[in-house]
Amino acid sequence: MSLQCVTQRLTAVHQSSVSIKKFSRGIFAVAVSFGIALTPACAHQGDNMTNSPSALLHAYGKLADQTPINQVTLTNSNGVSVDVINYGGIITRIETPDSNGNMGNIVLGLDNLEDYTNATTYFGAIIGRFGNRIANGKFSLNGTDYQLATNDGDNHLHGGVQGFDKKVWTMVPFSTENSAGVTLSLISPDGDQGYPGELTTQVTYTLTNKNTLDMQFVAKTNKPTIINMTQHSYFNLAGKGDILDHQMQINSNAITPVDGGLIPTGELMQVAG
What we know:
six-stranded mixed sheet; GH-type_carb-bd; mainly beta; Beta-galactosidase, Chain A, domain 5; carbohydrate binding
């Protein structure tokens, strides 16, 4: 499929300090933690551009308490489009042409808002405050022990019972000559799901005319805390059928083995050999 070279830039900021972490990573995967991949022919895109990029906002549905949920459709000049809702910052659809020019959706999603609110699959969602599992929901920081909400047996998973995937984000669409995007903002109060510190977060998705989907995560806190945000889309680059012929590459020298409860053991296992 045409989606293939995506980068994510993640910036973490503590209090009023400058950026203390910034990295880019490209991954090719079915379930991607840090990026979405767009076409190998990125450098050749844009030759047949006809329309300016657009970011169109429209109603998507209402939660059980009647809170309105909106969706923004990002479209670049090549006709590639991305749908995002402000419930969980979920990417519900990525429409892109295959090698024959046939359009297809390459991310897994659900049919409607009610399905997303009831799901435990995290399809397409922003994960936070902390992705993956924390054993028994406990951690220590600067000599203080913290107990987090548990939602995976005795463990804490993907931010807890009401993680960022279940939050309603503020959504601001934008477009430029070369891209269309949306910035999602959320304030997580001190003590949310057991985490210390108020956390102000912004996630920006930008679809460019080079057919890249850039993701930028920014987080600011007013006291020491832990954070490990990510994006949880699942991909089928064929647009339909199974993924048994997909090839996955992760540019990494090591992996983190897990125990029987899928908790990382802390070991860094080298993949060479």
